[in-house]
From TrEMBL:
The protein, known as: IGF-like family receptor 1
Superkingdom of the organism of origin: Eukaryota
Domain TNFR-Cys: 53-92
PANTHER family, per the entry: IGF-LIKE FAMILY RECEPTOR 1
InterPro entries xrefs: DEATH-like_dom_sf, Growth_fac_rcpt_cys_sf, IGFLR1, TNFR/NGFR_Cys_rich_reg
The TNFR-Cys repeat ranges on this chain: 53-92
Coiled-coil regions listed: none
Origin organism lineage: Eukaryota, Metazoa, Chordata, Craniata, Vertebrata
Residue stretches of biased makeup (Low complexity): 130-144
Compartments it resides in: Cell membrane
């Protein structure tokens, strides 16, 4: 004891006039415990170092004020995988496991295992036989050498490449499935009316032709009095459901009216003529990948107004300046019964 006032593990603090624990002034270090009264007299003078190394059979992993007694054995069925040293208690592992960096891991190949155990034993012996050099000032103790880990760089690189290839393959599979799903839904839309998908260039060329035809029809609007001169009487009086039943005519109307082309009125305007709300029209276009908005409009119109005829549809198309679509309706004359 170096103090007449304080018990072991504490030193006299002249500023507070009381005994305080050593760890309030000095840090706790693995493999060491505090000397008696932290090596300080009641006057605050150092008469020995603040630390002393854990004795044989004891350890401190850096979480204790004093060195703790090592266990002597492991509970069944565990066995001792790492012996006690001044920084670690014995480590208990299962059969065919070894201690590595304080944890139990599966045993490696014999050559690698021998190298690791040799390094571990030599490190343990080096720490156990080392003594801290005396000093009048508080120097930090050197840490125990770490156990070298096996070089697993090659395995990590291989696993990284394998993961990257798996992600690439998964991306292409998902992309192909989405494409196949889209093509299937597109072919089924319009109740089977659209049987072939348009290429991007073909669709752009088609939209340009539509825009040209619409402009041409608009210029002739003043010269015509309505769609009656375009439709045969039998077609005008045919029920509106006739359009849904003629897949060829319906397909042409879908390609002409569904696309959004700047300056050209389309299915959105036709739906407005049929008194569908703005929200309903937006929802129909949001489902365009699954069902044609024009088909949805025609089906809704037939349901709400079963007495509507092809002539009524032609009048609404003429109102929004789409006489090109009225010309397509004229093709119904072949399939209309007199």
């Amino acid at each position: 004891m170096t103090s007449d006032r304080c018990l072991d593990g504490k030193h006299w603090d002249r500023n507070q006039n009381l005994c305080v624990p050593c760890y309030t002034k000095f840090r706790i270090h693995a493999g060491y415990e505090f000397s008696a009264n932290c090596g300080l007299t009641d006057d605050g003078h150092h008469i020995e170092t603040a630390y002393k190394q854990c004795s044989k059979g004891t350890f401190n992993d850096g979480s204790y004020v004093k060195c703790q007694t090592c266990r002597s054995s492991c509970p069944n069925p565990l066995v001792i995988a790492s012996a006690c040293n001044n920084t670690s208690d014995i480590i208990c592992c299962r059969q065919r496991e070894q201690a590595l960096n304080g944890t139990c891991v599966p045993k490696l190949l014999p050559t690698t295992e021998k190298t690791i155990w040799s390094t571990t034993l030599s490190s343990t012996a080096s720490v156990a036989n080392s003594d801290p050099s005396p000093s009048s000032t508080q120097s930090l103790p050197s840490k125990s050498p770490l156990v070298d880990t096996p070089n697993l760089t090659g395995i990590y690189v291989f696993l990284g490449i394998l993961s990257a290839l798996s992600l690439v393959c998964l991306f292409f599979v998902i992309k192909r499935r989405k494409r196949n799903h889209f093509n299937g839904e597109f072919q089924k839309c319009c109740n089977g009316a659209v049987r072939e998908s348009l290429t991007k260039k073909g669709l752009e060329r088609f939209q340009q032709n539509v825009a040209y035809n619409v402009i041409k029809e608009t210029s002739k609007k003043d010269q015509t009095t309505g769609p009656s001169h375009l439709l045969a009487p039998g077609v005008q009086n045919a029920p509106l459901s006739t359009v849904l039943n003629n897949l060829d005519v319906l397909e042409e109307l879908v390609f002409v009216l569904d696309p959004d082309i700047a300056g050209v009125k389309n299915t959105r305007h036709l739906a407005s003529q049929c008194s569908f709300s703005f929200a309903w029209i937006n929802y129909a276009y949001s489902m365009k990948d699954h069902k044609s908005p024009l088909v949805a409009v025609l089906e809704g119109a037939v349901t709400k107004n079963p007495d509507w005829t092809v002539g009524d549809l032609a009048e609404m198309l003429s109102t929004i300046g789409r006489n090109d679509a009225v010309e397509i309706l004229a093709k119904l004359s072949v399939g209309v019964e007199e």
